[in-house]
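Format notes (please read before filing issues)

Several people have asked whether sequences and structure tokens are stored in separate files. They are not. Every record keeps both together, in the order shown below: the sequence lines, then the token lines. Line labels are part of the format and must not be stripped during preprocessing.
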Amino acid sequence: MTSVRPDLDPELRHLLADMPLMSDLTPEVLARLRELPSNPIDALLADRSVDRRETSVPAEDGTPIPLTVLSPAGRDRAGAAPCVYWIHGGGMVMGDRFAQLEIPLEWLDEFGAVVVSVDYRLAPEATGTTLVDDCYRGLRWTAEHAADLGIDPDRIVVAGASAGGGLAAGLTLLARDLGAPRVAAQLLICPMLDHRNDSTSSHQFSGGPGMWTAEMNAFAWRSVLGGLADDEVPAYVSPARADDLSGLPTTYVDTGSAEVFRDEITDYASRLWAAGGQAELHVWAGGFHGFDTLYPEARISAAARRTRTDWLGRLLTGPDA
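Then the structure lines:
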């Protein structure tokens, strides 16, 4: 299989030139990455008028699952607000509920949305369905407390980036199969969907440094699966395994052409259409994994963020909203 890669967007290539890149993850490297400071939530909120609430919900085994709830302060918009239930990235092995939070905060600013961000447990300490189950517990609490939170329970959007996007897809499948809570839409940013790591794009982004390589992906999935055989991996963990994608809510999904997840993402969108679902797919030419988070000032990043926000605006403020 070819190892020739699509070229990077010229502006991104220039910005990335001095960035130290990795080719693989190890337990030792992961430990060092976990020691890095979390996203500075206070700085993100400093220029915003936001009410912040910290709470937790118990997992099935009693472990507290932290949630951060961010609402526009003194909301003066009529009626209940839409909600973005945010799931952070980090390969399911690192990160916390403050990671990439600047993305949903844009939707708080734009639409007055309440943002609920969940701190699911990480692999390899947690494995299998534990991570998506943690996300489900938080989503169910959010829906059950919609009135208290000022949320419209019919406008809860599940969203996430990278690993968070994959968990969002698995969570939406789980909510569909359990019959609740109702998810109005899923917004999946460069989602991590397939543990098999065997697509053309997986092979293209193997064997060299990058923002997220096939080798790093394999390490993360080994950490999550905890020894499960391929045929034992649930679709809630690896959504690309789902046989039935019918009955899912409207979906936005995007990727870069120059990233390891490209083909599993485009395949997922195609399968949603084949199942009669509604999906909007964007493949950003020359975008690498997480490009718009790392370099939000780049023109391609601004376009990607604006396009997501425009889609969400049509969903939340359309004639049926």
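For reference, the curators noted about this record: Residues 88 and 164 are 5 Å apart (CA to CA). The chain has one domain: 10-317.
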